[in-house]
Structure formats: C-alpha cells, structure tokens
Automatic annotation (TrEMBL):
Transmembrane segments: none annotated. PANTHER family: ALKANESULFONATE MONOOXYGENASE-RELATED, C2H2 FINGER DOMAIN TRANSCRIPTION FACTOR (EUROFUNG)-RELATED. InterPro entries: Diverse_substr_monoxygenases (IPR051260), Luciferase-like_dom (IPR011251), Luciferase-like_sf (IPR036661), NTA_MOA (IPR016215). The keyword Flavoprotein applies. Residues 30-391 form the Luciferase-like domain. NCBIfam families: FMN_nitrolo. SUPFAM superfamilies: Bacterial luciferase-like (SSF51679). Keywords: Flavoprotein, FMN, Monooxygenase, Oxidoreductase. Its EC number is 1.14.13.131. Belongs to the NtaA/SnaA/DszA monooxygenase family. This is Dimethyl-sulfide monooxygenase. The keyword Oxidoreductase applies.
Amino acid sequence: MTDRMRLNLFTMNSVEHVSVGSWRLPGDQSHRYSDREYWTDVARTAERGGFDAVFFADVRGIYDVYSDDRETAVEKAVQTPSNDPAYLIPAMAEVTDDLGFAVTKSTSYNHPYQLAREFSTLDHLTDGRVAFNIVTSYLESAAANLGYDDRMDHDERYDRADEFMDVLYKLFEDSWDDDAVVRDRESGVFTDPEKVSAIDHEGEHFEIPGPHGAEPSPQRTPVLYQAGSSDRGREFAAEHAEAVFVSQPSVEAVEDYVADLRERAADHGRDPDSLAFFPGIVPIVGETEEVAEAKYDAYTDAIDTEGVLALLSGFVDMDLSDLDPDQKLEHIETEAIQGVVNAFTANDDRDWTVREVAEFAGLGTTSPVVVGTPEQVADEFQYWFEDVGVDGFNVKEVARPDSLRDFVDLVVPELRERGLLRDEYDGETLRETTFGRRGLPDGHPGSR
Ligand SMILES: Cc1cc2nc3c(=O)[nH]c(=O)nc-3n(C[C@H](O)[C@H](O)[C@H](O)COP(=O)(O)O)c2cc1C
C-alpha cells in the first residue's frame, strides 16, 4: 500500500509493558512513567525519528490469572501500576508538530457517547493527530471492577464493539455538517441548528439519540487501529480497521494473516489495499555487532520469567503456573487473546515449551527480536517492508528510553539514507501523514 515505511513506538503508560523485568536495567527510566517530562522527551525523540505515532497500549483490570492471585503481577509491576494514556496526549502534542498519538480504549468498558466526546476533544487539541486502538478487553478482573458479574464472552464483546463503532461513526461523521458552526456575531447564531442532527441510534446494546456534543474535529473519526486475530477479531478488523497491529511470530504467519484480512476486507466491500499492516518488532542495535550482542545479553538477563508468565497467563486466560516448564504448549480456544495462543501453537514449524515461550516472550511477547548494527537492523526492516509487504512497524522498547534513542540515532539515519523513511512529515493530520488521505477510505462503514 505504501511507498515509504511507517513507524509507531509501541509503549504503555506504566512501568512494564511487554519486557517484564527490564525496569531493573541500569539507567532504565520506566519508573518515571508518571512524570510528564519523561513523555514529552519520548515525543520529541519519536518526532525526530520521523515516527508516525506513539502508540499507547492500555489495560483494564489486574493480571491475577497466574497462580490465581495478583501477587506476582503487583510485585513485578506487570502493567500495574499504570495510568490512563489519554491524559498524556495534550502535553506530548504541545512539544511536537506532526507526531500522532494512538490511544487504546475498550469498547467493552466505555460508553460510545462518552468516548466520542473524549476522542473529539483530543483530536481538537492535537490538530487532528489522534488514533483509536479499538480493543475489547480480556481480563476477568476488569469486568468485576467495572460492575459486571462476568466478563462478556469473546465473540459477544466483538458484537458490542461493532455496534459501538456504528454509534461512533454516526456521532463523528453524520451529526454535524461541516458548515454547522457559523459564529455570526451580528445575528447571534453560533451554530445553525438545521445543520446539527440527532443520530437516533437504537440497537441491541445502546439507545442514543444524539446529537454529538462536540463540533467536528480535524479528522472527525480518529485513525482506527485494531489487533484482533481470532476469526471473529479478524472479521471486525476487516470491517473497521484502517491499520492492523499484526502479532504473528513467523514470516509465513504474517503473510497468511495479511492475505486473509485483505480478502475479508474485500468481502466487506472495502479496497483491500486501504488496510495497512504493522507487525511488532524489537530492535536491539549497537554501533558494532559486539555492542549489540552485549545489549541483547544484558536485556535477556534482566527478563523476569515469572513476571512474563504472569503477563502471558492474563493474555491467554490460563494459569501457566500449573504447567510443567518443559511441557509443550497445547492449542486452546481462549476467551482472552486468541492471537497470543495462536502465535505459539498454530504454526507448523515449531513446538514451544512453556519455558521457551517465557524466555522468548520476555523481550516483547510475540514479536521478532532483531539484534545487530544499524545496517543489519535496517536490512531486517527493509526485508519485512519490501519482501513480506508490511506497511510499517510497531517498534517495541526493552530499555526505556534507551531503546528508542538507539533506534532513532542509529537505525533511522540508515533507513533515511536508503530512501525508506521520510525526512520530513507531509500532511497536517495523522491520517494524512500516515495514509495520505483526509477522511476514512471509500467503502469503509464510517465513510461519509
Ligand atoms: C499485539 C496485540 C496488542 C494488543 N493490545 C491490547 C491492549 O493494549 N489493550 C487491550 O485491552 N487489548 C489489547 N489486545 C487485545 C485485542 O485488542 C483483542 O481484544 C484481543 O486480542 C481479543 O481478540 P482476538 O482473540 O481476536 O485476538 C492486543 C492484542 C494483540 C494481539
């Protein structure tokens, strides 16, 4: 789809995201996640590296599946404590001009009328630089804390998400005409009431008359990201996502996933090429191979295997403390994140033991780890971009913020030298800088 590589920094407003134990590395700054200046520095560095966006994962609930208690997760800072990412965005936008911000929000535990207002506000405040990573949430502990007896079933969560998106499109795209706000001091008309419509949504989960309370923001609908990989999750992504976060551990699995989603998008009446694909990747780079290897060794030593198992137990909703570490991981159908299970059990090329999964997943869960000089790391990025056909990457950090700085100082110049990465941003909104279009693509259900 693209002629140049897209980059997102994949991070979380918490101590640990997906490299559990890395907060112990010398000089690591993860503990400063609640410090505004940590994030404004991240924003400046990401923009210097031509990143499209900083992509914030987020979770509701606590990782209490492992050993059937929360002790490991709390002790080892497994995505707890964490703060809400949305509130960081205005501060990060203030110190940047073009960088975008993808915010993860759950369709299971938000109300669409309320979330539409929050995203419109962020889109106004950032001059159109916001994306919505649509998730359905997977932890049982979130349901309990948010007033539900049980977590909704996996596919039912996606049904609610479908209707949730339908409401958002009506609020963002249909409720206010472009020229509704007239601001005519003389006549005293700020907004022409004829140009603001109710949405009168009546569905299975929501009854929402509207209209939207916010006037149209630069992008109206934020850029839409999604990461589902179960059958139902893929259907949802094929219908709604503009960009998909791919989480598959082998090239073949990524190729199959991309082909499958493009086919499903076409079935939904969309241009299959309007969907962009971003695998996660963990670059570990040094000026020489020795330096890179030394970093890799230090990062691997810092992995907290028990913490990783606590994280994965939440991802797959299965207590991995029950299993013999040398036991092969069997395929299961989970009510949580099917894609993480599939990543380790649905490929023919390898059988993974529990111990191997914990060790591999310690540096970024299911994503490939690339270790080497700037040229070697750039080779790998180029290979995925040109030969495998992905559009960009969600770059995962291990040491914070050193991994990002290393990447921007060492790999970005090499990618630019090769003409793979832009030198300057083009376009005003995030959708323009990432996709070269102003609105949702034709054939998308939210397209006006
Ligand atoms: C790579 C990846 C990243 C994800 N990030 C988040 C996240 O930050 N927050 C969240 O609640 N869910 C996250 N999810 C969960 C998905 O959005 C989705 O709700 C879940 O995977 C269930 O769908 P599936 O079974 O189709 O994969 C992520 C999933 C994957 C595969």
